[in-house]
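Working notes for the structural subgroup meeting. M.R. asked for a predicted model of this chain before we commit to crystallization trials. I am recording the input and output together here so anyone reviewing the notebook later can reproduce the run.

Input as submitted:
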Amino acid sequence: MREIIKFIIFIFLFSSICCSANTQSINENNGGYSITTFDPQKNPEIKNNGVIDQGLTPFWKLPVHIQLTYILFCLFSITSLIYIFPFFFGRLKHALENPKTREILCFIQRNPGVTIAELSKRQNINRGTLKYHLSQLLSNDKITFIKKGKFARVFYNTSSPMDIENIISMYLKNENTRKILFKIMDNPGISNQELSSSFDLAKSTTHEYIKKMSEDDILEFRQDGKFKRCYLKQDAHMVLLRYKPN
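Returned structure, recorded in token form:
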């Protein structure tokens, strides 16, 4: 990438120098120019529309330095296009031409929130090789990583990397948070104390779980006297309907 940037800067500077030299040469040859009032008797060759009636000057009759500047600029422009376009448009094609990379991407789409360890085991591939394939997908914006706790989970890249489905899929990986989510879904308005009693969890543990869910915009609290009632947000409820076991 640095080489491409240097190449573009070189083209820009070279073109600027050529144009400056060209302008200076014209000014030196013609002695510059001045603006005066138009006099049709002194300038009979100029038509009413202000164009000199001498026809277009053919390219080969232009001064040599102008011809060379034009030709060199065209050559550099064509060269830069040939050099740069494959870099930008060939990256994705090159990455997805690898069958294993495509297979890994399809697996991530079917299993959002998979960890690198799980992916390595399920795809029967060592960590080093897997990281290479993931780096190819990441550089082409096909996947994204979301760190939750001590694990980094892999998701297919959507328009919003932290969309609600990706977040919920992370909670569904944990047995306790999965049970809590479906319990709230089936019992809207359930309290922290009732959740703790249902799953034999400490109140502090349950509170920490539902607090994180609230921060991730999955559920909301409504005060009912001294109790806080838990309700799933509509978007989260719609996503959980697809994951709920029969």
